[in-house]
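Reopening: structure tokens for the pyridoxal-5'-phosphate complex, inputs below.
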Amino acid sequence: MYEFLKKQDEEVFDAIEGEEKRQAEGLELIPSENYVSRAVKEAMASSLTNKYSEGYPGKRYYGGQEFTDKVERFAQERAKQLFGAGFANVQPLGGANANIGAYFGLLEPGDTVLGMELSHGGHLTHGHPVTYIAKIFNFVRYGMKDVETGEIDYDALEATAKKERPKIVLAGFSAYPRELDWKRIADIAHGVGAVAMADVAHIAGLIAGGSQKNPFDYGFDVMTTTTHKTLRGPRGGMILVREREDLAKAIDKAIFPGLQGGPHMHQIAAKAVAFKEALAPSFKDYAQQVVANAAAMAEVFKESDVRMITGGTSNHLILADVFGSLGMSGGEAEKLLDEAGITLNKNAIADDTRKPMDPSGIRFGTPAITTRGFSEDDSREVARLMLEVLKTKDAAAAREKIRALAEKHPIPNSFA
Ligand SMILES: *Cc1c(COP(=O)(O)O)cnc(C)c1O
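Re-run output (same inputs, fresh job):
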């Protein structure tokens, strides 16, 4: 695959080869990561990267758009079909750009957004004070009523919406293991004249595959997402609008010319390829298995009395309180597991008593191992090995078993 690169630039070739080996030999449990198919990679590596296509299909600034227009329309049509959307903008370069584009399209500076408490699972781009977005718009918060079950405090959400009159009610998360009551949130948003916006960056693939509810079925107006997490496409973002053309037009203008320059057409082609894969019946099995595997891992943690935020999981990820249950910080757990060949991330938990750089929790999930064909039994085995490493603080003993599990399930080139 890297014939020319190898000859021309050995330094970069070696780094890429090293990363490919790392991915093949270790187990990837970061819940926002996945493996794309060879077809997606081929589209990403195509000559479409050479082309400037500022604008949208049929309305470009430069000539020579016969094929780029086709590619972008394939991506748009497939995205709409996957999520039941009326409009799709497939140009955002990532999930952050998708959110920023949606805010600029839907808000004026100073307007209010009501979003999920960051320490309860919300994302940086939902108005964390370190972001520039937080200087432009006013973010107010809702959160969980009960950290042990994960139930959102919907009454408080409604009261805050009535008091603050947000223009957007934002629902979505990076570290929340349960499903939201989409209908309740959409009704609250519409009750105060706000747009109901869902950031489904983490769960888009589960929605597309039917193992999580689709916010559009419950009245949500706008969805933003990444394309590289559970959706298993190339790194990128996307904005979907259910039916309001006024919102779609405003968002298109915000992305280009408001925020970005030329779209990355090679990534858009790869998005189209990944969306076709997600439309295939086998993607439903994948989405079901991701959730079943996460439930199997949660069972093992529960049997070992390790506290999980919200008590377990209903989606692809688990947030475990390793400080509370095992007396080690999230950072220490991350490092030990890394030495054993398991990659995951430390994560703050709700009401964390520790500092953000070394919090109490770890976050892990099953999208990547499920792509490798892990069953529920395999997933239970991974959870048992994790607990063995964390309890004995001996990474070396588990390392061979983890490598054997990885070797048993090579990263696939295609999902057909
Ligand atoms: C990952 C994520 C993003 C950001 O996506 P990037 O592609 O990293 O910019 C935004 N929102 C949520 C909820 C996420 O999980």
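The chain has two domains: 41-278, 282-408. Residues 281-303 form the longest helix (23 residues). Marking as resolved unless the reporter disagrees.
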